[in-house]
């Protein structure tokens, strides 16, 4: 009898999916759990965007679009990136609409990464990057940023490049999932100065750019346009995770190659979602502002409360995550701690070990939930703390 598993490619067998969703689903079986696990906006998609999508469906806009995306959507996305982050892209040749940033990441890494290619990744980091590098046969080189307050410094990047002079790709994500940390214009410039001395392909995932609390987000692509593939989209800024709208932008010759891979994955992105995205990019420039203000209020609350409970943490500068160090008095690793807290006081958190080097000993909590949920979680964590 044929065993089909024997025919599966080794890279697929070796690839480990993120345990974030699996862990979250496991905890979700606990009755009355206050879940701070999944990073998804708890706001509705803006009304004018929903109406645009519904109008497109009503008008029978239900057919294939250009594989790169509708030109109207690409133009709106390019204008949005220009106005918000001062980066210039030709919508006809430099912008591709994707099914979320995950598809953009897969298409890009499949374009650049082959067997044995080294990919640099500052960690802790969202584990999908690791999985996609492995799936494409690359070799992940983790850069532990924990000693540097969870920021990649020029000095640490230089040291890593000395140890790995043939590294091909650098992946950066800021504001960061899971730490919420981000970079000032001066810090981005300093990193760009180091990168400019290399042949690195920079993949810059800036999906949380509109959820920045310390002034306007500064894109790495502004300083290294010819060396950077920029990712952005609407999932976080416009609470559109289920609409699956991502944007990949970069030098024209390279985007042609990335677009080939993306076309083979799903032909095109849902037409009505692209129409809604055009509305969001074009007339929803400031839609994120009220959500960002509420996230910042929650950020301040959870940061102060976790600090009071003895969890050391760097104050997030963006996104909607807090990455907190587990007090030593609990004597548990991150996975055991999260399971014990979920079991005893019914608060769900993600173990820091899920995010690579520098993550063990920490927990990630998402404050993309109501203030009442956050207050109840803190009340329960206080009980847990008092009992230990």
Automatic annotation (TrEMBL):
Its EC number is 2.6.1.-. Keywords: Aminotransferase, Pyridoxal phosphate, Transferase. It comes from the Bacteria. Its cofactor is pyridoxal 5'-phosphate. This is Aminotransferase. Residues 32-381 form the Aminotransferase class I/classII large domain. GO terms for biological process: amino acid metabolic process. GO terms for molecular function: pyridoxal phosphate binding; transaminase activity. It is an enzyme of class 2 (transferase). The keyword Transferase applies. InterPro entries: Aminotransferase_I/II_large, AspAT/PAT-like, NHTrfase_class1_PyrdxlP-BS, PyrdxlP-dep_Trfase, PyrdxlP-dep_Trfase_major, PyrdxlP-dep_Trfase_small. Belongs to the class-I pyridoxal-phosphate-dependent aminotransferase family.
């Amino acid at each position: 009898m044929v065993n089909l598993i024997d025919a599966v490619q080794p890279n697929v067998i070796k690839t480990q999916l993120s345990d974030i969703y699996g862990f979250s689903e496991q905890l979700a079986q606990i009755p009355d759990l206050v879940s701070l696990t999944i990073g998804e906006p708890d706001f509705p998609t803006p009304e004018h965007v929903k109406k645009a999508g519904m109008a497109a469906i009503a008008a029978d806009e239900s057919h294939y679009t250009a594989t790169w995306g509708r030109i109207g959507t690409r133009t709106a996305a390019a204008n949005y990136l220009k106005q918000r982050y001062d980066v210039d892209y030709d919508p006809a040749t430099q912008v591709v609409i994707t099914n979320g940033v995950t598809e953009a990441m897969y298409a890009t890494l499949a374009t650049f990464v082959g067997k044995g290619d080294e990919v640099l990744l500052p960690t802790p980091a969202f584990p999908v990057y690791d999985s996609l590098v492995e799936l494409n046969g690359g070799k992940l080189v983790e850069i532990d940023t924990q000693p540097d307050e969870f920021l990649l410094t020029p000095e640490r990047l230089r040291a890593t490049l000395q140890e790995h002079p043939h590294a091909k790709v650098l992946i950066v994500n800021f504001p960061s999932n899971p730490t919420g940390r981000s970079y000032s214009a001066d810090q981005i410039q300093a990193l760009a100065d180091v990168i400019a001395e290399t042949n690195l392909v920079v993949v810059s995932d800036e999906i949380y750019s509109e959820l920045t609390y310390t002034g306007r987000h500064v894109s790495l692509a502004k300083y290294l346009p010819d060396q950077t593939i920029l990712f952005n989209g609407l999932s976080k800024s416009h609470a559109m995770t289920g609409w699956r709208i991502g944007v990949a932008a970069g030098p024209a010759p390279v985007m042609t190659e990335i677009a080939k891979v993306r076309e083979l994955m799903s032909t095109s992105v849902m037409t009505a979602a692209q129409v809604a995205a055009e509305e969001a990019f074009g007339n929803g420039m400031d839609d994120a502002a009220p959500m960002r203000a509420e996230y910042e209020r929650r950020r301040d609350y959870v940061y102060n409360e976790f600090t009071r409970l003895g969890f050391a943490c760097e104050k997030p500068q963006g996104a909607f995550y807090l990455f907190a160090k587990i007090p030593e008095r609990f004597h548990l690793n991150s996975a055991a701690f999260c399971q014990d807290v979920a079991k005893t006081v019914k608060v769900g958190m993600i173990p820091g070990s899920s995010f690579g080097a520098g993550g063990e000993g920490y927990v990630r909590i998402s404050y993309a939930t109501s203030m009442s949920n956050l207050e109840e979680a803190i009340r329960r964590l206080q009980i847990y703390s008092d009992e230990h």
